[in-house]
Design goal:
Layout lengths: L14 E3 L15 H8 L6 H9 L3 H16 L2 E5 L1 E4 L28 H11 L6 E4 L9 H14 L4 E4 L2 H11 L3 H11 L1 E4 L9 H8 L5 H13 L3 E8 L5 H18 L2 E8 L15 H14 L5 E2 L3 H4 L1 H7 L6 E4 L20 H10 L3 E4 L26 E3 L5 H10 L3 H15 L4 E5 L1 E4 L28 H13 L4 E4 L9 H14 L4 E4 L2 H11 L3 H11 L3 E2 L9 H7 L6 H13 L3 E8 L5 H18 L2 E8 L16 H14 L5 E3 L2 H11 L7 E4 L18 H10 L3 E4 L16
Parallel strand pairs: 2-10, 2-11, 3-4, 4-5, 5-6, 6-7, 7-8, 8-9, 13-21, 13-22, 14-15, 15-16, 17-18, 18-19, 19-20
Antiparallel strand pairs: 1-12
The structure holds iron/sulfur cluster.
Iron/sulfur cluster binds next to loops.
Length: 755
């Protein structure tokens, strides 16, 4: 059965067929058609093909082609290892402009460990079942070939189970020059001492002009290839890399890949290609900024397609972040690197990824993407672990049956939610629906801020880290002065809306809220008021002893213009009883929304996934939303995000949803909620990279700048972006940014956004 994902004039004609593995999309971009034919015939791609793949706006075909090759090579098998990183010195005689790790030889913050200090460090940090130690560091004139040979021997003696993957080509070359030996001779001595393989660092970008601008002290790229060639001839395996996202062009990247491919044709020892996303903080190239999510994924996909003779493409979560790395497994990568444990080099450049991942977490990330985790050793042999494996909990594999949606049925959606992990197919189908609804290449966003007027709450939701009981030392009701300052800050930033959100304060009656709204209306008539979730409004009515209808009317008459869809979480009683038994029920949530729509007020609808709900419950949630939207048409947008667990009572008790699950959910929501105009990207919980990718999984809106957010951030989310950052992300994805109001009317920015 072939796939059919053609975008048509309306979403009624869009259909999603779960694909058998060796079939191809019909590219939307005609430039990709001959490339797809070559990939199908397993022919080598040219430089021009690589550039076309990098530049195509048809990102779903790029993804599908890369996944086809990845699946052809490895099926669903996805590799990781248990490893630990170690940097014996951070002192370096060179000063590469992209590096935030190295210290000068006389810098008091510099260090160089003795062999005994290194061993002590390994004893302290290496995970129990580690199979590999990864050693790289600065170029220190006292750490000679003899030092490393002694170090490797000592490691072999004390930790015979650890494979030593050590020293980049630049370090080997430095040792050779310092000790007046050939590359081969240095390598022979180190192999004899225990060196098992080489990492791929130090490749940067091979183009001589770029090389000269970012690391002119290092010997040129020929040296990098010569060292790896020498290693391969001695039977040593190695990895290769590319540091991208600084001053190079797309052409430089493709040229780099081709030079690696040619080296592999000559000596054949590269095991994996690892694209390294430039992390800019504290480097000389800080103004270049971070790579975007789409750029990271394009690089993974293009490298999978160009490097036809390198078996593995590794996504290095340390550099791109855990969420993006998980999604990269659906863009051509087959290796999620390892547990790592204490990485310093990228973290010195501002990486906000964790220092280590557990085996359980790696398994969860891989399985959530519908793939099969395989623990490997450094040389890609499967490890039969002596330790218990995390339970595999997911059904896997392709169903191969057609799911057609003139209007997707409940059962079809449940089937997709339970079984379809093909992010390429889901994303393309959702994107086609989005384009049918919004054909213009525009992505909207609003400049607004949340104001949390009080954190006192009686509902004690287990997923909530924001609330404090009445009388708690950290409880508050925002005073008028602070409130006014927050609104004025928003004005200065060109904002046009506030989102009022609080807990449920048992003493505050409707008059208190009316007074607040009237004050805002009269003092800030230019700022729209979007506020109060369904649970807040429902309890305002109860506390005030008036009907729901009267409550909403009075709030509206006092100045409330629209209502956010918060407090929905998962709209089934099974979930609500488990995570928020005191909160309003599903029916009550819908009663608030129906009444508001009836009174002519528009609202949004939300979902928080990953708090232990069954896949079917998510579709039950969507089904109720779709029904009400059919009745009233009052929802302007759907927004979903993932549960954040820090500081909550649910921490460690539910399997969290990762980025793959978020994008899957968003795609399925776009397909199912055929009567919703707008879908927002939740970059606040997912980060800018996944937030950008959401634009290819059904979202047409980047939500808001959210100058301030306290509810989700109390549970551990830390992502921030201003209007300029949002516009950069939108433009990089090939869309035009457009500011909007709550009703999705285009508006002119109130202050220039800058470029
Ligand atoms: S989620 Fe809302 S209702 Fe629940 S405890 Fe937190 S503030 Fe209260």
């Amino acid at each position: 059965m072939g796939e059919s994902l053609a975008p048509g004039p309306g979403f009624a004609v869009v259909s999603l067929t779960l694909r058998p593995q060796e079939t191809f999309f019909t590219p939307v971009d005609p430039l990709l058609a001959p490339i797809a034919t070559k990939v199908d015939a397993r022919e080598r791609l040219s430089f021009d093909d690589g550039v076309a793949l990098y530049r195509t706006p048809d990102v779903h075909t790029l993804q599908a082609l890369a996944q086809t090759v990845r699946t052809r090579l490895h099926g669903a098998r996805t590799f990781y290892n248990i490893n630990t990183h170690l940097e014996p010195t951070n002192k370096c005689v060179f000063q590469c402009r992209f590096c935030a790790f190295a210290k000068k030889l006389n810098d008091p913050e510099g260090y160089a460990w003795s062999v005994e200090e290194v061993l002590a460090h390994i004893r302290e940090t290496a995970p129990e079942h580690a199979t590999e130690i990864h050693i790289v560091g600065g170029l220190h004139p006292k750490l000679t070939t003899a030092y490393y040979a002694e170090l490797f021997r000592a490691i072999r003696r004390e930790f015979p189970h650890l494979h030593i993957k050590a020293l980049t080509a630049v370090e080997i070359d430095f040792l050779a020059r310092m000790d007046r030996l050939s590359h081969t001779e240095v390598l022979k001595r180190l192999i004899e001492a225990g060196l098992g393989s080489m990492p791929g660092g130090g490749a940067e970008i091979f183009d001589p002009e770029i090389w000269d601008q970012i690391c002119h002290q290092k010997p040129g790229f020929e040296n990098y290839l010569a060292v790896h060639g020498a290693a391969h001839r001695l039977g040593l395996k190695s990895n290769c890399t590319m540091l991208y996202g600084h001053i190079e062009s797309i052409e430089h990247r493709v040229d780099h890949m081709i030079r690696l491919r040619e080296q592999q044709d000559r000596t054949g020892g590269f095991q994996a290609f690892v694209p390294l996303a430039f992390n800019p903080m504290h480097t000389d190239l800080e103004e270049q900024g971070w790579t975007t999510g789409l750029d990271d994924l394009r690089t993974i996909a293009v490298s999978r397609l160009m490097l036809d003779n390198i078996p593995h493409i590794k996504t290095y979560w340390i550099m791109v972040g855990v969420k993006l790395a998980q999604v990269a497994l659906s863009w051509g990568a087959d290796d999620l690197d390892g547990t790592v444990t204490e990485e310093q080099i990228t973290h010195a450049a501002g990486a906000d990824s964790p220092q280590a991942l557990t085996v359980d977490r790696l398994h969860h990330l891989i399985e959530e993407a519908g793939l099969v985790p395989v623990e490997r050793d450094t040389l890609y042999s499967e490890v039969v672990p002596p330790h218990p494996q995390p339970l595999s909990h997911q059904w896997r594999g392709e169903r191969g049956e057609a799911i057609q949606s003139s209007r997707m049925t409940f059962n079809e959606a449940v089937d997709l939610m339970e079984h379809c992990h093909d992010l390429a197919a889901l994303g393309q189908a959702a994107h086609a629906v989005r384009l049918a609804r919004h054909p213009e290449p525009v992505v909207t966003y609003i400049v607004d801020r949340n104001i949390n007027y009080s954190n006192v709450c009686t509902e004690l939701c287990k997923f909530c880290a924001f609330y404090r009981p009445k009388g708690h030392s950290e409880s508050y009701i925002l005073d008028r002065e602070t409130f006014a300052r927050k609104v004025e800050e928003l004005r200065e930033a060109g904002g046009r809306q506030i989102l009022l959100q609080g807990g449920i304060h048992p003493d505050l009656k409707i008059e208190w809220y009316e007074e607040m709204l009237r004050w805002l209306r009269s003092d800030y008539p230019d700022i729209a008021i979007h506020g109060f979730s369904a649970p807040e409004i429902y309890r305002f009515a109860e506390i005030s002893g008036i009907s729901l209808r009267e409550t909403i009317e009075r709030l509206r008459d006092a100045g409330l213009q629209s209502i956010p869809g918060g407090g929905a979480e998962i709209l089934t009683e099974t979930s609500r009883q488990r995570i928020s038994p005191l909160k309003i029920t599903t029916d009550q949530w819908f009663e608030v929304m129906r009444t508001a729509h009836d009174l002519g007020m528009r609202t949004t609808a939300t979902m928080m996934l990953g708090c232990g709900e069954a896949p079917r419950e998510r579709i039950e949630h969507l089904e109720r939303l779709r029904q009400l939207q059919d009745e009233t048409g009052g929802f302007t947008a759907f927004i979903c995000w993932t549960f954040q667990e820090e500081n909550t009572a649910l921490r460690g008790k539910v399997p969290l949803a990762g980025a793959h699950e978020y994008l899957r959910m968003l795609s399925i929501a776009r397909l199912y909620l055929d009567n919703f105009e707008n879908m927002q990207s939740s970059w606040v919980t997912q980060g800018a990279k996944i937030g950008q990718l959401a634009l290819f999984h059904g979202a047409n809106d980047m939500g808001s700048t959210m100058l301030e957010e306290n509810v989700v951030s109390a549970a551990g989310t830390i992502f921030h972006m201003d209007a300029r950052g949002i516009e950069r992300v939108i433009r990089d994805a090939g869309f035009r940014p457009q500011q909007r109001d709550f009703f999705y009317n285009p508006v002119e920015p109130r202050v220039p956004v800058g470029c």
